[in-house]
Amino acid sequence: MTQIPELELLTEESFSRGLMVLASIDNDLAQILETLGPPPIWSREPGFATLVWIILEQQVSLAAAKAVFTRLCGVVVTLTPENFLTLDDAQLKGIGFSRQKILYCRGLADAIATGQLDLSKLSKMDETAIRTQLKRLKGIGDWTVDIYLLMALQRADVFPKGDLGLAIALQKLKNLGTRPTPAQLETMTQHWRPWRAIAARLLWHYYLSNANSNKLMGV
């Protein structure tokens, strides 16, 4: 198992340092920092509950996903895979789950409950291994893995190239004629390495300052 270099994990110190580096190499990011101040670090607790929340955020507004997640936590006070699996289709649909997301979250819960997936081990794995582990599960694609890596595992060099908010923000920030595709985002952000997760937070900060937080996320 590959040991994670310290640089790849965000701390308050490395976050501040990364902001300074990004501001020195990209004038547009420097302008965001000067105008809006530092973005929130935006973190979530690693584990099953956070992955369920991220799955709920796929292709819907953040507000809608949070409402469903809040209702779920009201029904299942301790949100463990085992407790989640006690809910039937009618209960989950009543909470606000779509048929697809019932399938995805049950698959995740079952994989953990049966020992096929151990989320506690992910923190010590490299990004490629984490991506391989999680993407074996139906309904978990690159965007979901990226958000988990960025927010739950605090990896410093993750950029969710499938995120709509980031694409909109970069189009506006760089005054582009068209919204960049995920492949274009991947290319355009290479010079921000190894701090792309901080750049993503700056762009979300900018995006949220220009629009309501009730916006679509990626897939």
UniProtKB/TrEMBL annotation:
Listed CDD domains: ENDO3c (cd00056)
Domain HhH-GPD: from-to ranges: 56-208
Keyword set, alphabetical order: DNA damage, DNA repair
SMART domains: ENDO3c
InterPro entries registered for this protein in UniProt: Alkylbase_DNA_Glycosylase/TA (IPR051912), DNA_glycosylase (IPR011257), HhH-GPD_domain (IPR003265)
Name of one Pfam family that matches: HhH-GPD
EC number(s) recorded for this UniProt protein: 3.2.2.21
Tagged with keyword DNA repair: yes
Database matches in Gene3D superfamilies: 1.10.1670.40, Hypothetical protein, domain 2
Catalytic function, reaction form: Hydrolysis of alkylated DNA, releasing 3-methyladenine, 3-methylguanine, 7-methylguanine and 7-methyladenine
SUPFAM superfamilies in alphabetical order: DNA-glycosylase
Superkingdom of the organism of origin: Bacteria
Keyword Repeat: no
Protein name in the entry: DNA-3-methyladenine glycosylase II
